[in-house]
Amino acid sequence: MRRTLATGVLLALLAMPLAAQDPNPLDPSLRTQLNAARGIVDKERRILLASELNLTREERDKFWPLFNEYAEDLREVTDIRIDVIVRYAENYRRMTNDIAKSLVNDRFRHERELLKLRERYLKKMRRILPETKVARFFQVESKLAAALNYNLASRIPVIKDPPR
């Protein structure tokens, strides 16, 4: 069952309608597409975690409210990344060094905020779950992030030099 769920998650990630190989800066639906994909990932994340964590009733009663808080905070951090992807697509054909610098700075800001979020919730998770389940939670999160990162990397073209 777990293998089926994991396969389903990966297939959903790989089927997401994200930026094409040549992002269209005029595509007003890119942000909508990314948000829709995020919704799919969020649902799959919950199903996968419910399957993988094997929580007791007492653990479930504590975990899911904390997870909902985590998911909301993660959504805010993910908004930074979505904004970077949309701005990249909007500027892809007319990239400048200043825009590229801003995109890189914001991408690193996303990474810093994501790490801070995970460290903050690591402490909270350790208060309510055994360490093996805490580790498993972050392991599942890491695998989902890796699959999503792979998907994004395969769909978003490498930045071009600015026009001269």
Q: How many strand segments?
A: 0
Strand content: under 5%
Count of discrete domains: 1
- Rg measurement, Å: 18 Å
The total of helices stands at 5
Helix content: over 70%
SSE order, one letter for each helix or strand: HHHHH
Shape: elongated
Average of per-residue pLDDT values: 85
Intertermini distance: 55 Å
Low-confidence runs: 9-21
**Major sheet details:** none
Structural class of the secondary structure composition? Answer: mainly alpha
What would a concise description of this structure say?
The chain is mostly helical and 164 residues long.
Describe this structure in words.
Residues 9-21 have low confidence and may be disordered. The chain starts with a helix and ends in a 9-residue tail after the last helix. The longest helix is centred in the middle third of the chain and has 35 residues, at 57-91. α2 (30-53) packs antiparallel against α5 and α3 runs antiparallel to α4 (97-128). The chain has 164 residues and is an all-alpha fold. The protein has five helices and no strands.
Question: What key attributes describe this structure?
Answer:
164 residues, mainly alpha, elongated
Topology:
Elements lengths: L1 H13 L15 H24 L3 H35 L5 H32 L2 H25 L9
